[in-house]
Amino acid sequence: MLESLKAQFDHIVVFDTETTGIKHKTDEIIEIGIMKASFGAEQPIPEQEADLLVQLSSGRELPPFITELTGITEEMLRTQGVSKAEACRRVCEFFGNPRTLLVAYNAQFDLCFLYYFLHAHGCAHLLKGVKMLDAMTVLRMINVITGMMRMPVTKEMLMDLNAELNQIAIP
After folding, report:
1. DSSP readout, 33-59?
2. pTM for this prediction
3. 87-105, pLDDT tens digit by residue?
4. Which one, 11, 105, 118, 147, has least CB within 10 Å?
């Protein structure tokens, strides 16, 4: 699978967001974790990473449930968070090459938030043409297939499965 990815992509960008809720048009990103890697001979080589707390908009409060879920507090966002403009500038550094594969767990959720975040700062065009891989979907497929087999899974079996998933997940 690595060889196929190397042929199609120059970089992999893995990212995750924490948000104030589930509505990408009205809720806000409060944390973005992002890492960019290039391909080495055996495995991806990390090139750049950031873990950014993002300040809330003026007048906005962080729901208690989100603090419970994430461990992020309003105080942390106030004292350690960067402005939305700074967060956008830093996140944009990870994009710009159309031969980039974006990877996220539950990618639809994170990608919607990322798109609206970048759009608000005039940078959504950086996502144009970028391919996306949802790690959650791949893991679910592996669980279904291995659960159906009811036998120990070997490294060779997973490598064969990766080859099959590559045909499905990455056009």
Report:
1. EEEEEEE-SSSEEEEEEEEEEBPPPTT
2. 0.79
3. 999 999 998 777 888 999 8
4. 147
The contacts found for 124-131 with CB under 8 angstroms, 24 or more apart, are: 126/92, 126/95, 126/96, 127/95, 127/102, 128/98, 129/98, 130/95, 130/98, 130/100, 130/101, 130/102, 131/8, 131/9, 131/100, 131/101, 131/102, 131/170, 131/171
Instruction: Please name the amino acid found at residue 122.
Output: G
- Residue 3 burial (CB count, 10 A): 10
User: Between vectors from CA 47 to CA 46 and to CA 51, what angle results, nearest 5°?
Assistant: 85
Distance of CA 139 to the CA centre of its chain: 15
